Description:
Helices cover 44% and strands 15% of the residues. By secondary structure, the protein is an alpha+beta fold. A hairpin with a 6-residue loop joins β4 and β5.
Amino acid sequence: MKSSWRHSLLAKMLGWLALHLLVLALIFGGLLALQLRLGLDSLLAGRTGDHLKDLGEVVGAELRATPRTEWPTVLSRHSASRGLQLDVWQPPERWEAGAFKGVPRNVMDRIREARLPQSQRSQNPPPLQGRPPGDRPPPPPPRAGGDDLFDGGLLGDGPPENRRQGPPPGRRNEQDEDFQPPRGRPLPASAPVFLVRGESGNGYWAGIEFPLRPAPGTGGPQHALLIVRSEDLSGNGLFFEIRPWIFGGFAVLAVSVAFWAPFALSITRYVGRLTRATERIAEGDFQVTVETSRRDELGRLGVAVTEMAGRLDRFVSGQRRFLADVAHELCAPLARVRTGIAVLEQTVPEDNQARLLSVDDDAGELARLIDEILAFSRAGAGRPQLRTTELEPLIRDVAAREGEELEIAFILEPDLTAHVDLRLLSRAFGNLVRNVRVHAGAGAKLEIMARRLGAQLSVTFRDNGPGVPAEDLPRLFEPFYRPDRSRTRDTGGSGLGLAIVRTCIEACGGRVSASNPSEGGFEVAVSLPVE
């Protein structure tokens, strides 16, 4: 009996492997989610930081080379090309493009907390306190465009009187010219400052510090923040790349399967061999050998199965040989007994003839039993002579010979042939028809059906007799077994008829089974090989 895929050992092993990997994935995902909730800034130390730095360099370079009045256009173009929202923030609350409808409070806190590089603060002039009034330089004239917004060490720490929101209408901003850093002093690189999730799930926000123009009185560059917003954590690959994690997961799965699959397949293949071997033993075929090259517990089990099959084969063969020898040895004295009874019939008085005839009947029954034992022994001995045989003529010939008192109906597909031993199959079919005549009685109806099912032929013998108790069905084909209600000598027979049927059918490479149809009666199904 073959087990379904979901109940196979290989499916269970793969299922446990998948469950193991799923648990690992859930633990890993939980730890990752916990880390991301505790702080996304840790991502800035890896590829995310490199991506944000590159974005700051590209956008910053283009903004430095573009008049401030065209910055909204530049930011809008980059936003559309990357599928994100970009804007530039300058203190105190100046947004260049107005791309955001509203900024979460925690994001604004991070923006205001952003500090300029330490190197720029060191370039600021010393404080005016403590210097003689005559040594204090005059305050620089106010510049249009609010370019003195980044004079302080903190973004947005400049004096309130110097903070403006942009150049007055109609005036040219002198700082809109391209900025060139002082000779010999490289332009500071862009740097990611923060990565945070907006409150109430309002997207994911990143801040990138990049240089703009010289701070007044220092010659050093001013800095601004490029603010980037995305609806999800991936940020179209800018914030968090999910594909490497997916590929990594598949790689882990592939490596795990590569390590586990050979082990699981080797076990399941060998267990499959053991299963097929034990199924053959259960069906009465003891010519079984299991490959025993393994040195583990399964290998020892294979050795045990092979030795068990050999011992069973010797036991069954010895039992049949013993029965055949006993039956053969009984034939000679039984023949002498029957000859003596025939002689005595001539001399025994009339009043003792009935007793003598009873003894002769017993001797005849013993002779028939011995014949059946010999037939049973011969059916399983020797090598069957298998050849292609037409089925319909064989069935009709057996039915005519053994079923004269039965009402037989034939349902046979035309041109059916089987690869069988004609002598053994004829004996098996004859016993089945005779069994119907004995147990269902004269005048019983017998239906013989034959059809082809793939590489097998199915032949069914169904009668309208009393049937057999369900608990007796598994043992009907055992030698000398008779159901309880058939144990009398008149109706039960010797108990070898169906045993001979199974032996003959299995010698032809087929299978036989018995059942009680739902509509009543008794049915025997025979399966034979076509080739």
